[in-house]
Write a structure and sequence with these properties.
This protein has about 475 residues and is mostly helical. It is built from 18 helices and no strands. The two termini are about 30 Å apart.
């Protein structure tokens, strides 16, 4: 019944209101995830100087920045696989194929174990080489290796949660997945100061405490999501025999999941490349970028949340042949996301100083981060169009167009520009302009692709226009 109501709402309700009603809960969940990501940086920035190390907090933030691409990659594989499981399971439920529903869930869980095994090996043997490829500073190398080793070796929490979260969402039980996510985030936030600074009788663990707080929060989310899945997802049969991988099931999962993994992995690749390039300018530039990246997630994740509402609305009405509602979906999707990005732009331009001040950096790094924030924020208006149009492309089956826009935004333009600007005398100022320029170039391509999609896909639709 709930699924039917949702279908009716997407096909008959006012598009402007339906998009908000579907998008706002997703936005809130995504913003919560951004909060989850920023907490570690805020607390480790206040680490006291020990062992003769001055500005230990700044070193720690730098170490977290270098570790972040791998954390993003872990999430990319977990969420991407979960997206594929979600789509296959929901489709199989609609077809009333109970056996395939169970196999989709079971194979998804088995794939999560395989993904974890790969990152476990990396955590045990590859972390130091990875961090060392981005910095030669012994303090940052030690901190980054310590933090990332823990996050990788104990990554089963976030990987398994990504699967169980999608299993709950695929059966419409999004309230339970949200409870699990909130519980983990709150756990992380509460444990961070206790484990970093050594409160409540625990020893001060510094950056290792931040890592332990993170993975414990992830495990809490996993356990709660598992409990709800096995207690509430009665329509999904469980059993060891469903854990056996089947080629056809795995293929169907990754037909949907692989593009999602690639899109997420591009962010990881870009951040890794930027860390290396900015490291040739100064360690302060790397730290400043890491701080800004965490702050911008609040704005970008809100845009991603609305994008995830654009896609089903446009897709559903495209399937129904309703040209008018497809056009409304495109219009309101772009409008709403642009409003979010405009508010974010204004907010960062006005309040960059107090926001950056929360991280207790040195005066040099703080000034650099404020300058970076005000420059990169200029590109938010271009980024808003890119995010919205990519949601439309996914709805219309233009996956290659969406991938090209992502490549332009995250790799093809930004990395060469950053490398070029890093060679200039005023590199500390110029490097930040690579981001808004990349967003502008990507938007130009997105608009051209959108005009082509309108001509080839939307205009030929035989449904009503008014």
């Amino acid at each position: 019944m709930s699924k039917e109501a949702t279908v009716n709402k997407m096909g008959t309700g006012a598009v402007s209101k339906v998009m908000l009603s579907m998008g706002i809960p997703i936005v809130l969940s995504m913003v919560l995830q951004a909060c989850y990501n920023i907490v570690d940086s805020m607390f480790v920035a206040r680490m006291p100087d020990t062992g003769g190390i001055t500005n230990a907090g700044e070193y720690a933030v730098n170490a977290l920045t270098l570790a972040f691409p791998v954390q993003m990659l872990i999430v990319a594989f977990g969420i991407g696989t979960g997206v594929g499981v979600n789509a296959l399971l929901a489709k199989s439920l609609g077809q009333r194929d109970e056996e395939k529903v169970a196999k989709a869930a079971g194979n998804g869980i088995s794939l999560a174990f395989i993904i974890y095994a790969a990152f476990l090996v990396f955590g045990l043997f590859g972390v130091k080489a990875y961090i060392g490829s981005q910095t030669k500073d012994e303090v940052i190398l030690a901190m980054g290796s310590s933090y990332l080793s823990i996050c990788s070796v104990v990554s089963f929490g976030i990987i398994m949660f990504s699967i169980y979260e999608k299993l709950l969402q695929s059966t419409g039980k999004t309230v339970y997945s949200t409870i699990a996510q909130v519980s983990g985030a709150v756990t992380n936030i509460v444990l961070d100061p206790i484990m970093i600074f050594g409160y409540c009788g625990l020893p001060s663990m510094g950056i290792r405490g931040a890592a332990y707080a993170t993975v414990i929060g992830q495990i809490v989310s996993m356990l709660i999501a598992m409990y709800f899945h096995y207690k509430k997802n009665t329509e999904v049969k469980s059993g060891r025999r469903y854990l056996k991988l089947e080629g056809s099931i795995v293929k169907e999962i990754y037909v949907i999941g692989l593009p999602a993994i690639i899109m997420q992995a591009l962010m990881s690749f870009m951040t890794y490349g930027i860390n290396i390039i900015f490291g040739t300018v100064s360690q302060a530039a790397v730290t400043a970028y890491g701080i800004f990246y965490k702050i911008q997630q609040f704005i970008f994740f809100a845009g991603f949340g609305l994008r995830d509402a654009i896609t089903p609305i446009v897709s559903f009405n495209y399937g129904m042949g309703d040209k008018k509602r497809v056009k409304q979906g495109v219009f309101y999707g772009i409008l709403y996301i642009e409003i979010i990005m405009l508010v974010g732009l204004i907010g960062l331009e006005l309040f960059a100083n107090p926001l950056i001040g929360l991280f207790a950096m040195s005066k040099e790094t703080e000034a650099l981060c404020v300058m970076a924030t005000k420059i990169i924020a200029v590109g938010f208006l271009f980024a808003g169009g890119n995010i919205a149009i990519q949601g439309v492309f996914q709805a219309l089956g233009c996956g290659m167009d969406s991938l090209i826009v992502s490549l332009l935004r995250l790799c093809i333009v930004v990395l060469p520009l950053a490398w070029l600007f890093a060679k200039l005398e005023n590199a500390a100022f110029m490097i930040w302009w690579s981001f808004p320029i990349a967003e502008f170039v990507a938007l130009a391509a997105a608009v051209l692709f959108m005009l082509r999609a309108n001509k080839r896909i939307i205009k030929p639709m035989k449904g009503r226009e008014s």
